[in-house]
Amino acid sequence: MKIMLSVFLVVVLMSSFTSAQSDKKFDQPVLITSAGQSADVTLAGMLFKKAGINYKIEALAKENNLDGIKTLVIIPGYSSKGLGAAGISRDQEKARINALILAAKKKNINILMIHIGGTARRGQQSDDFNELSAESSIAMIVVKQGDEDKFFTKIAGNKKIKISLVDKMAEVSNELKKIF
Questions:
Q1: Of 150, 164, 123, the residue nearest 38 (C-alpha)
Q2: Per-residue model confidence as pLDDT tens digits over 108-167
Q3: Cα distances (Å, whole numbers) of residue 175 to 108, 152, 154
Q4: DSSP character at residue 166
Q5: Cα(131)–Cα(52) distance, rounded to whole angstroms?
Q6: What is the DSSP letter of 28?
Q7: CATH architecture assigned to 25-179
Q8: Cα separation of 19 and 137, whole Å?
Q9: How far apart are CA 6 and CA 13, in angstroms?
Q10: What is the distance between the alpha carbons of residues 176 and 48, in angstroms, rounded to a whole number?
Q11: What pTM does this model have?
């Protein structure tokens, strides 16, 4: 009886350890970039800092910025002001993101998409950046207000991508702690 109980306890402890470890998909250091040049990338940096994660931000990241990086985080959201300040067109930004995603995949760097912009970063101008970022990721963290029409939920279901929906932007840090 004691042996059976001991075996049972070992199995339970091992399964708890395994399930806790299975959420840990991302490693540090992290490169955070924008897809669409919204200011949300700066807010994301604050959330990573709060979570105690080693990161750097390159709003216009390119392949050479991936050296030594373990996780690429893409923060999608169109901003005409941001694109203007960066001196690039919408098409140049899409080409940059496509090239960065391809380079990350070639280097086996996991991609995490975080959408914190709510409804302001949805719609005709932003959704091509949102779709590109979401479909390239292995996981997404999305503030629910930005998924009222289930845009991200549908992509996650179709592509079998893990999605975490949070009520408020401040809750993103808690989700980050779970996966890093």
A1: 123
A2: 999 999 999 888 889 889 999 999 999 999 999 999 999 999 999 999 999 999 999 999
A3: 22, 17, 20
A4: E
A5: 28
A6: S
A7: 3-Layer(aba) Sandwich (3.40)
A8: 21
A9: 11
A10: 7
A11: 0.86
